[in-house]
Amino acid sequence: MIPKLHYISQGKTVEEHLTNINNACTSGIELVQLRLKKFKEASILEAAEKAREITGRFQTRLIINDYYKIAKIVKADGVHLGQSDSCPSIARKHLYSWQLVGGTANTLEDCKTLLSKNVDYIGMGPFRFTLTKENLSPVLGLDGYTNILKNLDTETPIIAVGGITLDDVSDIMKTGVHGIAVSGAITTDFNRIGKFKQLIAGDEVQEKVWTPYQNNN
Fold first, then answer.
1. Quick check: 162 and 133 in contact, CB under 8 A?
2. pLDDT digits (tens, 9 = 90+) for 134-168
């Protein structure tokens, strides 16, 4: 199963992205998405190779945003495709059978379309307004996630994304999503990774807490 906490890389330069990925891995992240926009493909390939080296040392999964051919070259764990990126079905044909294909969704129909193309997970958002992404889709909020998941019958993991902070985690997880993808809130403090993990696992931990038998006699 795909990890429940994803770190989406951030930085003004390729070097900053790689430094932040290394910091995230050092702090215990289990999956990183290398998301480089407005860079030349040659630079993205070089960055992906270095990101693979970093994540490999920590046994962290690496997802490449958009560039599925690069994902195959560096043997990343998968690719994430935005709504304006390549079709998941096309990417799937080029990738190794073990590589994951994820897609971005904003509506119930988006989700159904991605499911029909057999994606391995769906990144659904944005939860709230964020400057991380241009041409932002309509904000979903808690009600958006709740309504979509209520009408979506699938075991495919849904990952909430978009401006999520520590204070949001518990409520978001209650909507039924599998996990959360974070960029800014982790980049500004990598120590938050452990806190995000604790909050995401909160309900599971509660269920596993042993309650002693009480004799009412």
1. yes
2. 667 899 999 999 999 999 989 999 999 999 999 99
Q: How far apart are CA 151 and CA 208, in angstroms?
A: 29
Q: Tell me whether residue 213 is in a domain.
A: no
Number of folded domains in the chain?
1
**98, 99, 97, 96: which is closest to 80 by C-alpha?**
99
Which residues in the chain show pLDDT less than 50?
205-217
DSSP 69-89: HHHHHTT-SEEEE-TTS--HH
**pLDDT (tens digit per residue) in 110-139:** 999 999 999 999 999 999 977 666 667 899
Q: How far apart are CA 161 and CA 174, in angstroms?
A: 15
Is 216 within a domain? no
